[in-house]
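Example 3.2
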Amino acid sequence: MSIRRAVTAVCGLLLAAAGGCSNNPFRSSTSTVPVNLTPPPGVAAPAHTIQQPPALPGAPTPSYANADSRELELTLARSRQETRLMQDEIAVLREQLASTSTQLAQSRAAVPPLGGAAQPGAGTPAAGTAPAMAAAQPLAASPAAMQSAMAQLALPDIESRFDGNVVRIEVPSDRLFENGSASLLPGGAALLTQVSSEVVRIYPGHFIGIEGHCDTEPLQSTSWGSPHQLTAARASSVFDFFTSRTSLRQGQLFLVAHGSNHPVVSNATAAGRTRNRRIELVVYAETIGSGND
């Protein structure tokens, strides 16, 4: 009986081994712990684990494949046309710039130095030619040349100043006219002769404005109804003297009557009012053509 029991036990062991680990009677039982795939706080979940929202039915997918080919062709044609127009405009602007630069260079070459005349053979065009006609048009000296030439004016006791692009020469009205009058004094005629000679010497052919000014004192014992009438009459007297007694021509002169609107200093003092009563000769940078009267 003991041998039979031993054989039976051995057979049971062999059967248990053939059945696998799961049927092993000697294997201790272990509990299975499930794996948690949820990420800890602060850590983003993998993209493939995020549930995507369902696509809306009928929503178009953005793609150039869905665009109308005819519309794209029209847009491309308009872009090409606009590009050609811009290129044409740029070409026209370049031509205008080149023409303007050429005219400016010719004008600068034709302008004689201030106080002198152009020498024959030094780029001076012959009379009657197209360049000569262009040179007869008003030309302009540079502001630097205008200001530099102002220092050559030999006018003692006469105020002169550079104002922007013009030269202003102040001739006191008290040295030209009697009080409240527009008739020239003998000394005033001599003074205007001296001033005109210097202007012609330093600024030959330049346009000149004759501007009349007065102070703010009321007009007394005069026939003028306003300061503007008085300053206009005085400017006219200077104009008549220049055109009849000097080499200045009518075509380069013009008149302005300011009245008391533009004082050069305050009218609060007697000296200020005296200076504000003046005739200003305003020399401009532009010159008159030789053919103008």
